[in-house]
Specification:
The complex is a heterodimer.
Chain A lengths: L9 H20 L1 H8 L7 H24 L11
Helix pairs in contact in A: 1-3
Chain B lengths: L2 H16 L13 E10 L4 E6 L6 E5 L14 E8 L2 E9 L6 H21 L4 H10 L4 H25 L5 H63 L7 H7 L6 E4 L4 E4 H18 L3 H12 L3 H25 L5 H21 L5 H20 L2 H7 L7 H49 L1
Parallel strand pairs in B: 3-5
Antiparallel strand pairs in B: 1-2, 1-4, 2-3, 4-5, 6-7
Helix pairs in contact in B: 1-5, 2-3, 2-9, 2-10, 2-13, 3-4, 3-13, 4-9, 4-10, 5-7, 5-9, 5-11, 5-12, 6-8, 7-8, 8-9, 11-13
Classes of the chains: A mainly alpha, B alpha+beta.
Chain lengths: 80, 443
């Protein structure tokens, strides 16, 4: 069985890492402004929900890329 | 459009139209205002309060029980009002957002990571320890519940996506159960409200703990025993007898769940979803019932059930988060801090399932359920004391609280340990096999 060696996605990890870190930095440096609007309730409820979704996509993709760089991948022949 | 999708959408629509005031996993409290104080007049026991919602300056009376010098100016707080003899007075002020120190930050990151790992592996969990953890760090209960839920649904989304990629999620089963769960939540919420009205908050705590302990102990022991039998006999997942019997009931509509490899009547799946929702609304750990329900009643493997539970958690969590966020109770800082590590954990847990067999998932689930049940059980005397049924020494009550909290942390650590060990063993074994295969290929 020949084993194909995949190129590790360093550039993708770097890009997602920078976006994720910048988003975290932006939010936590503007925390007073954020907390003012995010707890207003009513339609403002969209703010925390969308923020959580945004971070889960950006930071989640970053985490996924990092795990594959570290060699942590699903077992072959997955599909129980 | 497929018939079952139409039925699902119709059921969801009816549920949302006829029960707009229901919430996933308990309801946000209604009798409070969020805002800040700008001025306090100690002499007249009044203060100037600015509600976040309107931004208008209002003068409010402070109840005698609150010391004016304790009120922090300009900090956001949850303020409760009591109405005695026709005049409204501030009766309780809870600081809305805990100050984040380095230690609290580290604690949240660690709990997030292990909670995520557990969630990715068994489909639920993490929530049972995150809410008390946030509360013990100083967040008000309602903010802890809201923030936990708002972190749960994106985490579940990422976990469900990963496990879908591994071919473990039965989307149809997930959606069918999520919709019937929502119906269960409505009923559970009404029961909860009725108990709260009849016996007050201590009575409600006692009821919740009692149901919690009994169900988690019974189901946890069944799951645990099953895991042990399977691991000893080295046999693969066999469909449980109850599920086989129920699958024989040919009562239309029959639904075919491809990934779970089950054809079963909707009259069986509905009660499973309904009770999951009912228990999610009363004891806040729906997943601990949902996964065993899918395994022992419907007949899915623990692998498919735990993966599908993540999809259910996403739907239910998102729905609940909207309600709590509309009440303005989500502390987005807490949500994002926990997500920073739980998004790593949930993906690790998800890929961990590809290296283990069904009984390891059951072993982790059973162990966690039993420890969590014990943790809640030791608090029952505290609630009995609140109700005046028994009299408990204050220091003993404090000790019981501490035992309860630390056993939750123990549950998390034990589960994290079993998952990590199983995963490392699986990865090492698979690498050795790959190397051997490569050597054999060359020869």
């Amino acid at each position: 069985m020949s084993k194909t060696v995949k190129k590790k996605p360093y550039l993708r990890a770097l890009l997602l890492g920078v976006i994720s870190a910048a988003s975290y930095a932006y939010l936590f440096t503007h925390v007073n402004l954020v907390m003012e609007y995010f707890v207003k309730g009513g339609w403002y409820a969209a703010l925390p929900i969308l923020t959580a979704l945004y971070f889960s996509i950006v930071h989640g993709s970053f985490a996924s890329t990092m795990l594959s760089i570290l060699g942590l991948q699903a077992a072959r022949g997955t599909g129980h | 459009m497929k018939k079952w999708i139409v039925v699902l959408l119709a059921a969801l629509f009816i549920t949302l139209v006829f029960a707009p005031a229901a919430f996933a996993e308990s309801a946000p409290p209604a009798d409070f205002k969020i805002g800040s104080f700008t001025q306090v007049d100690a002499a007249s026991h009044t203060a100037t309060f600015v509600p976040s919602e309107t931004g208008e300056l209002t003068t409010v009376t402070i109840d005698e029980s609150i010391k004016p010098e304790d009120i922090k100016l300009d900090d956001k707080a949850m303020v409760s009002f009591s109405n005695t003899e026709g005049s409204e007075a501030v009766s309780e002020i809870t600081p809305m957002f805990l100050g984040l120190t380095r230690d609290k930050l580290i604690a949240l990151l660690i709990v997030g990571l292990i909670g995520g790992l557990l969630s990715g592996f068994i489909g639920s969990g993490g929530a049972f320890v995150l809410t008390p953890a946030m509360m013990s760090l100083g967040a008000p209960g309602a903010v802890a519940v809201a923030s936990n839920m708002c972190h749960k649904f994106p985490k579940a989304m990422v976990g469900a996506y990963k496990r879908f990629r591994y071919g473990q999620v039965d989307v149809k089963l997930g959606l069918v159960l999520a919709v019937s769960s929502i119906v269960g939540v409505q009923v559970g919420f009404q029961i909860q409200k009725w108990i709260l009205d009849s016996w007050g908050s201590a009575g409600s705590d006692l009821y919740v703990s009692f149901v919690f302990v009994i169900i988690l102990l019974v189901v946890g022991l069944i799951v645990f025993r099953d895991a042990l039998t399977m691991s000893k006999g080295d046999e693969e997942a066999k469909t449980p007898k109850l599920a086989l019997r129920l699958q024989k009931i040919q009562l239309p509509p029959m639904i075919h769940f491809k990934k779970a490899d089950v054809v079963i009547s909707a009259w069986v799946t509905f009660p499973v979803g309904f009770f999951t929702g009912l228990l999610a609304a009363t004891i806040a750990v729906g997943g601990f019932v949902g996964v065993p329900g899918m395994v022992y009643v419907i007949g899915a493997t623990a692998m498919v059930a735990s993966a599908t539970e993540l999809l259910i958690a996403f739907v239910m969590g998102m729905w609940g988060s909207v309600q709590w966020a509309m009440a303005g109770l989500v502390d987005v800082r807490l949500v994002l801090i926990i997500l920073a590590t739980s998004l790593v954990g949930v993906q690790l847990g998800a890929l961990g399932t590809t290296y283990v067999r069904d009984h390891t998932i059951k072993l982790v689930m059973g162990t966690v359920m039993i420890i969590v049940a014990v943790s809640r059980g030791v608090k029952i005397p505290v609630y009995l004391d609140h109700l005046g049924i028994i009299s408990l020494d204050k220091s003993l009550a404090g000790t019981l609280d501490a035992i309860s909290f630390w056993s939750l942390i123990a549950a998390l650590l034990v589960a994290g340990g079993i998952i990590s060990a199983a995963m490392i063993k699986g990865i090492v074994r698979s690498r050795i096999e790959e190397k051997e295969a490569a050597v054999a290929g060359r020869v």
